């Protein structure tokens, strides 16, 4: 098992700082969750730095609770109500999300907004090289990831009640503005590459020709795979979802192919043919075939944008460490990645023509 799988998969006892009022939670679930019957036992999932996530076990069934962090939050961050809304809209369509059971917006109940969903019981994968898998199994996992993303982007967002889930206009323009603000709101030091990116990205935003539901953090460890079959049974962590340009999600997934293997999603430089992993070109071809695209534009701008956005996300984690509200034991190691992410983003910006 890789370091990431050891440290991020599974549950642990609930740390003191993350404890919930179990009696109030059980009372709320009794009134709002269909077929619920206590008593409950709580543990916390190891993975995830943003919204603390708990496993709730009862004698008959298991559930998952996701809540906002306690303490002061950045504007628009940790929107668990939006996470709940998109999953509740997608669940009836058959798209693979966990079953939504209920949303509580009353922060007085357990100290923060939260929602309850079903537990998707399957494989949670962290290492994109899929050690221990056969080439055929690896190909199946990658095809499932690509096909599921294509199916999300093919979903009629208006028909499922999400016509107002995002703002009109160019998605990347909005997102560059948003992550610039988020970065500035959590800035702890001056990084020259970030300042250059904040100037360059808004002036080079590509045209947008499609609008779809965008997951916002679509990667291998944010989905649960069927225990035996090559299919996704639940896409997780919809915190960054909105309406926007589907190329945001797809280029983010393609980042795996240009990221060094580090026990996580990166597969750059691996022998894809021998491993059974599709090449970047094969991934593009499969996604385009399923979504009816003729092809994708030059990806370097998109890679730069994705890394800039990651820089903003990780800087937010760093700021929460400074403020004492970071929710994960892995948060400090994650925060140390900020300068490297900024440098990598500027590298792709230069490949896309930045001077």
Could you describe the 3D structure shown?
With 355 residues, the chain is of the alpha+beta class. The protein folds into two domains: 3-118, Phosphorylase Kinase, domain 1, CATH 3.30.200.20; 135-351, Aminoglycoside 3'-phosphotransferase, Chain: A, domain 2 (Alpha-Beta Complex), CATH 3.90.1200.10. It contains twelve helices and ten strands. The protein has helices spanning 3-8, 22-32, 80-90, 135-154, 171-185, 192-200, 246-254, 272-275, 280-291, 300-323, 331-335, 338-351, and strands at 11-12, 41-45, 53-57, 62-67, 100-104, 114-118, 212-214, 223-225, 232-235, 242-244. The strands form three sheets. A six-stranded antiparallel β-sheet has the order 1-2-3-4-6-5, with helices on both faces. Strands 7-10 form a two-stranded antiparallel ribbon. It is globular and about 60 Å long.
Question: What does the secondary structure layout of this molecule look like, with pairings?
Answer:
Layout: H1 3-8, E1 11-12, H2 22-32, E2 41-45, E3 53-57, E4 62-67, H3 80-90, E5 100-104, E6 114-118, H4 135-154, H5 171-185, H6 192-200, E7 212-214, E8 223-225, E9 232-235, E10 242-244, H7 246-254, H8 272-275, H9 280-291, H10 300-323, H11 331-335, H12 338-351
Antiparallel strand pairs: 1-2, 2-3, 3-4, 4-6, 5-6, 7-10, 8-9
Helix pairs in contact: 4-9, 5-10, 6-12, 10-12
Distance between the termini: 43 Å
State the helical fraction.
25-40%
Q: What's the oligomerization state?
A: single chain
CATH topology description of the largest domain: Aminoglycoside 3'-phosphotransferase, Chain: A, domain 2
Q: What is the CATH architecture term of the largest domain?
A: Alpha-Beta Complex
Query: How is the largest sheet built, in terms of strand order?
Result: 1-2-3-4-6-5
Q: With helices defined by DSSP (H or I, 4 residues minimum), what is the helix count?
A: 12
Biggest sheet details: 6 strands, antiparallel
Rg, Cα atoms, Å: 20 Å
User: Structural class, from secondary structure content?
Assistant: alpha+beta
- The best one-word shape is globular
Number of strands: 10
Overall pLDDT score: 92
Order of helices and strands: HEHEEEHEEHHHEEEEHHHHHH
**CATH class division of the largest domain:** Alpha Beta
Instruction: Give the amount of beta strand, in percent.
Output: 5-15%
Task: List the domain count as a whole number.
Answer: 2
């Amino acid at each position: 098992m890789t370091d990431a799988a050891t440290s991020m998969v599974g549950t642990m006892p609930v740390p003191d700082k993350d404890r919930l009022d179990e009696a109030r939670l059980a009372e709320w679930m009794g009134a709002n969750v269909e077929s619920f019957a206590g008593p409950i036992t709580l543990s916390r999932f190891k993975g995830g730095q943003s919204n603390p996530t708990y496993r709730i076990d009862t004698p008959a069934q298991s559930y998952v609770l996701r809540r906002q962090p306690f303490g002061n939050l950045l504007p628009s961050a940790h929107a668990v109500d939006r996470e709940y809304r998109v999953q509740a809209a997608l669940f009836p369509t058959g798209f693979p999300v966990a079953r939504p059971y209920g949303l509580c917006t009353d922060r007085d109940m357990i100290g923060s907004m939260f929602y309850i969903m079903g537990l998707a019981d399957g494989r949670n994968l962290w290492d994109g090289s899929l050690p221990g898998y056969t080439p055929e199994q690896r190909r199946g996992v990658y095809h499932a990831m690509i096909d599921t993303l294509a199916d999300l982007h093919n979903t009629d967002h208006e028909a499922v009640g999400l016509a107002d889930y995002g703002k009109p206009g160019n998605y990347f323009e909005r997102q560059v503005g948003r992550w610039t603000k988020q970065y500035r709101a959590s800035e702890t030091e001056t990084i020259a590459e970030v300042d250059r990116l904040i100037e360059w990205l808004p002036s080079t935003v590509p045209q947008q020709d499609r609008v779809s539901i965008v997951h916002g953090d679509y990667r291998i460890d944010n989905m649960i795979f069927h225990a035996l079959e090559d299919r996704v049974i639940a896409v997780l962590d919809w915190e960054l979802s909105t309406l926007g340009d589907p190329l945001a999600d797809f280029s983010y997934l393609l980042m795996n192919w240009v990221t060094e293997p580090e026990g996580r999603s990166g597969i750059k430089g691996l022998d894809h043919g021998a491993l059974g992993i599709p090449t970047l070109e094969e991934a593009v071809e499969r996604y385009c075939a399923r979504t009816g695209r003729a092809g994708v534009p030059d990806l370097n701008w998109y890679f730069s944008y994705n890394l800039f956005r990651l820089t903003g996300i990780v800087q937010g984690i760093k700021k929460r460490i400074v403020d004492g509200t970071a929710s994960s034991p892995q948060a400090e190691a994650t925060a140390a990645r900020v300068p490297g992410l900024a440098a990598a983003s500027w590298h792709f910006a230069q490949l896309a023509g930045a001077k």
